[in-house]
Amino acid sequence: MHTRRSHRRLVPELAQITAYGIFLASYLVFAIGKFPGTKIDRPAMGVIGAVLMFTCRAIGPADALHFIDFPTLVLLFSMMVLVAHLHLDGFFDWVAELAVARLKPHHLLPTVVFLTGALSAFFVNDIICLVMVPFVLTATRRMGVHPMPYLLAVATASNIGSVATITGNPQNMLIGSFSEIPYREFFWRLGPVALVGLFVDWLVLWAVCVRTGRRDPATVVTPTAHVEAAKLVKPGAVILLVLAGFLAGVPPALMAAVGAAMMLITRTREPHEVYDEVDWGILVFFIGLFLIVGGAENVGLMERLRFLTGAANLEHPALFTLIVAGLSNLVSNVPAVMLLKSLVPHFADPQRGWLLLAMASTLAGNLTITGSVANIIVVERARPDVDITFWEYFRAGFPITLLTLAFGWFWLSSSR
User: Which residue has the higher pLDDT, 8 or 160?
Assistant: First the structure.
């Protein structure tokens, strides 16, 4: 399998020590969300850490061009543009209203789980959460059921569904680029994990929340505005073309970029409306993270990490799954993937290592509210209608995480 050549260069000892400090401080902020006593969040720390790596000469301009993985950035940006057009043209509102008009209360939970999971498998799961929360609040008010289990379903199913493909979440995009695993192969190996995981999600949420849940009085809900079917023809056709390209083996970044460019050719949609939907913060965070980890590689930190983990038999599937899950909850999944990416190519079976990394870093996000950005989006979007506490989330998230990780480990360990 192709691996990137090391660009490590000689760095003075003082610069090495400084770079180590920058790396550790950056990952501290990634772990706790903000630098203590300041307003510095993860994207800001990504910028600050990258600038400091340049300042201490751990990286130079040529290193920056090498360490920034442009296909990942292009894929992430392009998928955001595609989903933004779907959102603005009313596709998700149309799907939600179609479902609400035909559902009965006992059908709502599996519908939310599998609809969220299916959409998250092919589009960025964070964006799917943004559009699914209003749908759940509308549907539960109309049916007179408490929204808590269904909001938890959006958060957990978005993580589980996104494990299936390279385009499901940001960390999978990174892994797809680093590993060069074809889109179809990735889907073939991890699609069953997502499918079984969604059934597990449904059963756990039903047992923990719905079976003993309470009903709320039904309220009159004003129907959403009618979506013109003609407006959905172009975005629908482009999305189908992009997905067909993915499955046909076209490089995902190129195919997504072609789709985004086609969407931007329009006479009716103002471009700034699309740009407002793009999460620029996560793009900035990715660039900073590439440079921070690149600086750590240049000063030899990653080589030391490989040496320390080599004696621990890290590539054993069960142990690697546990380490990835723990690290993903400690520093978040994208920084965890960036930290471990230099280890996987040295495994006896690198492809299985990459797939385990994708599976565990994604499914581990269901453990707590702060385990993934998708969870935080659901909690924030649900306010002030519903206040999801740490315990209410954890009592469902813990068994879901444990069971899905166990199946993912079993599936990838037993299949070839």
Answer: 160
Phi-psi region of 57 (alpha: psi -120 to 50; beta: other; left: phi over 0): left
Q: What is the pLDDT of residues 108-147, one digit of tens each?
A: 899 999 999 999 998 888 888 888 888 888 788 877 788 8
- In sequence order, what are the beta bridge partners of 34? 41
Nearest-angstrom CA–CA distance, 329 and 250: 33
Q: Is the pLDDT of residue 200 over 70?
A: yes
- Token couple for 116: 């969220």
Residue 380's nearest CA partner among 215, 93, 144, 154 is: 154
With tokens 């995981």, the residue in question is 197
Q: What is the pLDDT of residue 226?
A: 57
**For residues 162 and 121, is the Cβ–Cβ distance under 8 A?**
yes
Q: What are the Cα distances from residue 48, in Å, to 28, 43, 356?
A: 13, 9, 31
**Are 160 and 396 in contact, with CB atoms under 8 Å apart?**
no
Q: Burial level of 270, CB count in 10 A (0-12/13-18/19+)?
A: exposed
Q: Cα separations (Å) of 389 from 145, 184, 330?
A: 19, 38, 19
Q: What is the pLDDT of residue 2?
A: 46
Question: Cα–Cα–Cα angle for 72, 78, 84, nearest 5°?
Answer: 135
Locate 216 and state its tokens. Answer: 């709320």
Mean pLDDT for 61-76 is 86
**Containing H/E element for 324?**
helix 317-331
